[in-house]
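worker-03 picked up job from queue 'complexes'. Input manifest follows; two sequence lines, order preserved.
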Amino acid sequence: MAGSTPASLTADAPAETSAARKARRFSPWQEAWRRFRRHKMALVSAFALLVIVFAVLAGPFIWPVPINEIDFTAKLQGPSVSHPMGTDDLGQDLLARLIYGGRISLAVGVAAMVVAIFVGVLIGAIAGMASGAVDAALMWVTDLFLSLPQLPLLLLVIYLFREPVKGVLGIEGGAFVLIVAVIGGTRWMPAARLVRAQFLSIREKEFVEAARALGASRLRLVLMHILPNAMGPVIVVATIDIAAAIIAESTLSFLGLGFPSDVPTWGSVLRDAKDYLDIAPHWALFPGALIFITVLAINFIGDGLRDALDPRRVL
Amino acid sequence: MIPSLLGISVVLFALLALAPGDPFDELATNPAVPPEVRAALRAKFGLDDPIWMRYWHWLAALLQGDWGFSFVSRMDVSTLIMQRLPVTLIVIGASQFLAIAIALPVGVLAATRPYSLFDQIANTVAFIGFSLPTFFTGLVLILIFSIQLDWLPFVYRADINATGWAFYWEHIKQSIMPVTVLGLFQGAALVRFVRSSVLDVIRLDYVTTARSKGIGERKVITRHVVRTALIPVVTLVALQMPIVFSGAIVTEQIFRVPGIGSLLITSMLSNDTPVVMGVTFVSACLVVIFNLIADILYGWLDPRIAYR
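worker-03 finished. Artifact:
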């Protein structure tokens, strides 16, 4: 990855006048879009993801059924007109619960990605610019975190801090903040290594040297010249991080250590469903399929972005 | 290896020390226990010592094998973990074996015919494979093979009262689904690594030389290309261990396999802190050991690498 990173994305923008920048900036993104379109699965996935996001955001207005309306006469029913995705053991409408759960799952995914990428870029940038002892120490910490088993650590932190955080932020808010912080805090390492590697090669490039010769400060060098050129691969990692965070959240909820049972996320609905697999398979299949489709779509989009944002690739 | 183990122990201890909650909270609300007794107890167990001293005591106890006592199971944590560890290692080992057995031929075949129909299908299937969360695959397998077809048991039993071949057959039967779930997930990720690694090697000059000497294509691939291409794959198999452990926890929970993963979850749900710390530390140690093995293997397999 490092070593030969020619101008990409907004690479040629900074040194130009604003008018020229506007005209030029148009084309790299258009070029990226042209490359992205070639990846058919990515295109299909982007559409599928848009549908899911729209359904989750607009769902409660189109399907205004309360998520906790208990109706024992209609329990464990399969899909029907009044309950398109069936009902659970308390007769609660699954479609409404899955729409609500989708909001939480997607929000956790995006928020955890933001945390992970922010920490990763910060540590990677510091290590890449500082070199020497600071670099070595930061990379040692990164390697240490990489060799920690992620899920046991996630579970441990949630186990130890669940009660106090719940006391401060409430049940749902506490679980959200804790889960986002923990998933983000255990997933920043790939981004950090990537950013460092990018920095090591880009900071030696001629255009950075030119900017330095013009008297640009260190901070300006990083923010205006090096970071924009390092962003391509970071965007790809960020996309895939969303998928990984959604899986992590569902796993935690599935194991009973994520969101509490009365908050329906895709993972916690699946956990409640697993004991009724023989009499109500639809209950488990819908949330599972939703997690799978969302994660698969995001992974395909990441793959498409990898093609689109890698300027060395000729398509 | 020692520094990273120490680092892991510092991280774990820091979490434990930062976590709110005092083991003597209960005594504080108990009117029968006077404050002086509580203070004496705190002093005896070293809770008022400076943090570095508490860490030192904790580490020393850990190294001496004194991992505490499980209040739920009424036995030493180390005995409990040692009882559960073999099952986990067998399941993980078998699934890694399955993953490699699938990923190697598929990856090599896909790389020798890049962008062919087979390559595209293999790529797409691999993509789907590692996008499927293990808990969902597990449930679907149970639905198909235990409930619909009734071929395999979906609860792992440690107390099988059969002898001889029947005993082993029952064990294999109940291990099939957990091993398949983990193995397919790992295999899907490995296929892509194997493919790109073989693609990197297959263009090298020495492969062309081998072909121009008149060696058959089959032999060129198996003897010349694959041997070199597998070096990075070996490291990746070891570096994937943290992910394998995560998968093992989930699959053990679904199929109720009595390994350390399900031990971790049950002790968390029953607030059995000594067991939780012990299991977390053991899994961290195993991961570090696998990394070390990968490093050593890497240097041994690839003479171009030198550790100085």
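worker-03 released lock.
Chain A touches chain B through 46 residues (CB under 8 Å).
Residues 43 and 106 of chain A are 20 Å apart (CA to CA).
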